[in-house]
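Board notes (copied after class):
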Amino acid sequence: MKMVVVLVFMLSVALLCVQTLVAQTKRSPVKPRRVIFNCDGWSVFTDAHGSLDAWVENIFGPLEDSHVDALFWCDGSGGNTARYDSDVLEPWGQRIGKTDPVLMKWIAEGNDPAKVVVREAHQRGIDVFYSFRINDIHDSFESCAEEFPTYKAEHPEWMIGEGQPYGYPTALKFDIPEVRAIKLAVINELFEKWDFDGVEIDFMRGVPYFTPGTEPQNAHILTEFLREVRQDLDQRGEERGRRIELAVRVDEALDICHLDGFDVESWIKEGLLDILVVGAGAGDISVEEFKELAAGTSVRIYACLEAYGSVGRYRPRSEEVRRALALNYWYQGADGIYTFNWFPHSPGRAYEASLLKEIGDPNAMAGKPLARTWFGTIPITGRMVCCPPN
């Protein structure tokens, strides 16, 4: 009897390995992209002051003639409500009777932002993903009450709540099946209604995904969630005749990922991902260990070049520091650079548009200032450039 059980187990494992191999074999190579630009939908929308043309220009103007090959578009609602024409999520502000009249007017006129951003990106030859902040907690703040959805108000038990050692009280617990069902429904709708090239699950918006302290033991839940996402995307891809890509963003090192319940090894081994973005503000990103993990697979590794550093909250990093970091990531073998919290449409941040023409090619940064310190400008040296507060 024991021998039968062992044989059945071995056959099950072998079948899983074959299924994984077949899935990876069927996958078309992931397109190389120099720079992925994550667009903060809130800023480009509010700075357009109600003009659809200005909104389009805010998004795409700074990308013209740049190294940006893919736009990861966040709609600016926090991921729990929608600033696009959704049948799954309620409109931003609806719960408190404060929907955005400009947004509702655009939708009524046939200018749903999701439809327009896909159209405009494809006209420019840029791939476009929906960037899904899957557990955003801006709705913890009174100033962001419009982002707090009805389902959280009706089900406070779905959130981690007050009194936890870390995390914001409105963070959702992903061991709740209903929470995962809502998130899957959002992703499903994205490809039922619009022609996005892929979806990014931004796990950095934000941890924790379970009651603090239980993340590692619940890692299998997030892995199973990604399996369901991958299965749905593959089905949609077969209907379209082309693969729909899945990107995820995680912590800057594997040991931190493990603490947050992100079993990146399994995600890559099972062929669940196409793009892995690493980092969320830290400059020292362990690109090499993720590259080693992805060796022999089609998964591409992108280093997140965050506009803000850990020194001085919301104080933008200098041009010199960003160049130095980009060169470090290329040196470590990154497949490309991913930007976050960049606002090149804003007059005060126009220099970021110039950087988008440089950071996708180390040769384009040759001979330019790299890291500003208190003592002036220094060249890149060694594996990582260590800079005093900029």
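Comment from the instructor: The radius of gyration is 21 Å. The chain has one domain: 32-378.
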